[in-house]
């Protein structure tokens, strides 16, 4: 399961991803992100259960971020697993995304 | 009774010189010669014997006669034909006894003028049959120096006693008959040999029918050459519904028909069981129990049996006391283990062991000792010789390669001493893309130890599998978990690049991954068969540009110590070599910060062009295009 859950929390859409994200399923991630962004709400992506993510998964996140920013929403990453963080760092995107330790602090950052 | 058995002390014997024939006998001689010719033409011993006796009785005008031949043991005479009022066919007479026995024992013609003067004469026989024996003439039958029997005649019809002419005539006729009988015996032997030969030919034909037919579509081929008509060796292979090839090669102890029959049995059992049992060790175990139950005379069978998947190059085999197979990878020889189980038919509860190997474009050769025991004078071919001959015939289709090996032996004056059987699987002709690359690949550097190879379709669904395999290999190379995760990322990116850029979306092709262990890390070789990729165009994107794409190459460069394309001929696809070294180095624990491999791409030169020196020098190759 790549997209484990999609739920609403205090006006944000929270999408939880899990497992290994690569070329095989990065398209599913992209679709889920773009679908969520159609509601013109901020999106929080929970990466706590992601054990592997590669450039195609990162690309989906980047595309989501771009769409969000165009429509003045934010796409933030929460509870990023060590593995996902390593890849974001490698991509030097760890400063591009807003990254929060949990959903509460993400909400607190953009009340 | 028509034969007379006389006392050895009979003093009425006359010895007559049988060497010459009297003048005036020319008509009788002509008659004798023509008869001799006619019965010499006969090729059947019984008919010849009867015809000879009949002719002799007719020529000498006697009332009765009989012909005796020495039996196979050479101890007694057996009456093979008799003519006259009473038949005595089958009567046996010990050598030296009676007139017939003495004739042979003393090797001379014996004439008895009046049988009734002979004290031991069987009067009772005459009384019972009503035949009255008066005179007896008996001549030895000789072919060259060899005595084969005697012919005797009783009572001239004229009532006169036998004279010198009769004696001469009988001796001439006896020798002519001997020659005819000898010829007929030879002819019989020839016929018997011919019959055995035909049966052997039939057996040989049936045996050959047990061997698989040549199928040039399969990457497997065998040769069986018996030293006699029938073989104690066999090989077999057949394709299972899923494309796996079951194969076996066996060698029954001993030669000839016994071995051939056990061979036929073992081969049939294999062909039957091999279709359902997908476990070589278990298959051998069942075969072994079956053969143990029924084998006799201490016969046994050594055998290699296995399964080979052309789709992956994976080969599993088990060995029952047979010579270990020769396994040749494109760049080196694989050390195979000695048989770890006894031959079939000796210990009924023997345990067999499966061996598994990925051929990776290599060659698997099973053979009987008839091949390695090929002799040139005192020199034996041996496994090394076989290996050399196989090398000489490289780059040929497998069937031609095996033919070339045998031709070289035959023409080189090597002598076969046993049945010869050879079975080879050429993973290069398995139809996978992998074959071509390995053959065309520049050899891996010597410090690199090949671990395994994977061949898979350029489909994203194969990525997980690739990573899982690589993870195990990376652990074997003693990388820590962080390094392993990085390595999987870099390899995954490289494979995705092939899928997206080399083959292009929608196009399916093959990708092969060869994993080598280095003293201080790991080397991956990724091969595709797409049109050539220009390394210069695979540039990492500027990192400050936030957009998808180009990231993968950046990851590869950041993680790997070396990533270069090894040049291949046009149309041969692309070969990317990736090297990653442990941050702990070959021996000691290194001091680089955790999570950041040495020269991990965060250094200032990481954004440089494809020619910028990065990391440690590439292994072995000079003309690589770094990405």
Automatic annotation (TrEMBL), chain A:
It holds the Pfam family STAS. Gene3D superfamilies: STAS domain (3.30.750.24). CDD domains: STAS_anti-anti-sigma_factors. One of its GO terms (molecular function) is anti-sigma factor antagonist activity. Residues 2-110 form the STAS domain. Belongs to the anti-sigma-factor antagonist family. This is Anti-sigma factor antagonist. It comes from Dongia mobilis. The lineage of its organism: Bacteria, Pseudomonadati, Pseudomonadota, Alphaproteobacteria, Rhodospirillales.
TrEMBL record, chain B:
It comes from Dongia mobilis. SUPFAM superfamilies: GAF domain-like, PP2C-like. It holds the Pfam family SpoIIE. This is Sigma-B regulation protein RsbU (Phosphoserine phosphatase). Keywords: Hydrolase. Residues 1-21, 583-627 are annotated as: Disordered. Residues 215-427 form the PPM-type phosphatase domain. Residues 44-191 form the GAF domain. Residues 1-13 have a biased composition (Polar residues). It comes from the Bacteria. Residues 597-616 have a biased composition (Low complexity). InterPro entries: Bact_Sigma-Reg (IPR052016), GAF (IPR003018), GAF-like_dom_sf (IPR029016), HATPase_C_sf (IPR036890), HATPase_dom (IPR003594), PPM-type-like_dom_sf (IPR036457), PPM-type_phosphatase-like_dom (IPR001932).
